[in-house]
Write a sequence for this structure.
C-alpha cells in the first residue's frame, strides 16, 4: 500500500501502517516532501505509477478534487485518509466505537459542537445511510457545506439539525463530539477562530447539560483548554482512546473490503 500524506498525522499513519502489516501487507509512507503530488508531478501520473507497484493507495490531501482525480486515474482502490472536505475512515471508527459502547448507532443522538468541517461532512454522509439523530452546533458562518446538508436531509434517513446553541443542542445527547476549531491548513486563522468560537468549548458544565448517559468523543488531536477542557477528556465517560484505537480495526475492515479479501 502506498500512503500519501500532504498533511501531518499520527493516528492515520500509524493505524494504517500497523493495520496493514497485521493483515500481512506492507505499507510505504510518502510524506509531504516525498512525491509532492500536483507540484513535482501531476496527480494523474502519480496515480498510474503508484498503481503499478501497489494493490491499494491511501491518501491524506488538501483539496478533495485531488483524491477524486487520484481515484479516477489509479487502477487500484484509493482510500481517503482525510481531505479538506471529509474524513470517512474516522467516521467508520466512530460508528464502531458507538456500537461498542451503546450497542447500536441507530436511534442515538450524536451532537457535534464546533466547526462545520470535514468531520461534520462525514457525519452527514453517514446520516444519509444509517438512521440516527445528528446535531451540529456551530457559530454562525461556520456551518457545514450547505449542499451536503441538503442532500443528507433529502434522503430522509436521519434527523439532521444545524443550530447555533450548544446548550440546546446537547440536551439528551448520547454522544457529545468535538474537534479542533482550526483544522490543518487553517492554523493562521487559529487566533481569530478562538474568539469567534467562544461559548463552543465542551466543558464540564456543557456535559452536565447533556446528561449522565452522554459519552464524550473527539477525533484527536485535541487542543486541551481550547475546544475541550482537560477534565472532559479525562472523565470516565470520555471514550476518545478506544475511539482512536478503532481507527485501525475499522480501516482493516475497509482494506479487506476494497481488496476483495
Ligand atoms: N484523527 C486523525 O485523523 O488523526 P491524525 O491527524 O493524527 O491522523
Ligand atoms: N478537522 C481536523 C481533523 C483532524 C483529524 C483537521 O482537518 O485538521
Amino acid at each position: 500500500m502506498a500512503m500519501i500524506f500532504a498533511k501531518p498525522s499520527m493516528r492515520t499513519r500509524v493505524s494504517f501502517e500497523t493495520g496493514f502489516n497485521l493483515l500481512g501487507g506492507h505499507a510505504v509512507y510518502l510524506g509531504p516532501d516525498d512525491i509532492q503530488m500536483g507540484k513535482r508531478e501531476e496527480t494523474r501520473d502519480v496515480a498510474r505509477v503508484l498503481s503499478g507497484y501497489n494493490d491499494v493507495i491511501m491518501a491524506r490531501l488538501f483539496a478533495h478534487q485531488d483524491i477524486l482525480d487520484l481515484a479516477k486515474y489509479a487502477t487500484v482502490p484509493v482510500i481517503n485518509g482525510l481531505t479538506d472536505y471529509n474524513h470517512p475512515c474516522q467516521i467508520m471508527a466512530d460508528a464502531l466505537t458507538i456500537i461498542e459502547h451503546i450497542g447500536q448507532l441507530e436511534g442515538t443522538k450524536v451532537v457535534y459542537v464546533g466547526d462545520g468541517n470535514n468531520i461534520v461532512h462525514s457525519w452527514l454522509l453517514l446520516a444519509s445511510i444509517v438512521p440516527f439523530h445528528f446535531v451540529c452546533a456551530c457559530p454562525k458562518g461556520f456551518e457545514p457545506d450547505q449542499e451536503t446538508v441538503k442532500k443528507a436531509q433529502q434522503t430522509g434517513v436521519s434527523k439532521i439539525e444545524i443550530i447555533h446553541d450548544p446548550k440546546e443542542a446537547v440536551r439528551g445527547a448520547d454522544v457529545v463530539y468535538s474537534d479542533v476549531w482550526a483544522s490543518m491548513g487553517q492554523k493562521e486563522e487559529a487566533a481569530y477562530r478562538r474568539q469567534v468560537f467562544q461559548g463552543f468549548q465542551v466543558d464540564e458544565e456543557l456535559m452536565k447539560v447533556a446528561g449522565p448517559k452522554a459519552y464524550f468523543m473527539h477525533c484527536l488531536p485535541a487542543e486541551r483548554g481550547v475546544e475541550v477542557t482537560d477534565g472532559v477528556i479525562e472523565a470516565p465517560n470520555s471514550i476518545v482512546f478506544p475511539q482512536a484505537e478503532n481507527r485501525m480495526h475499522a480501516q482493516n475492515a475497509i482494506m479487506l473490503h476494497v481488496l476483495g479479501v
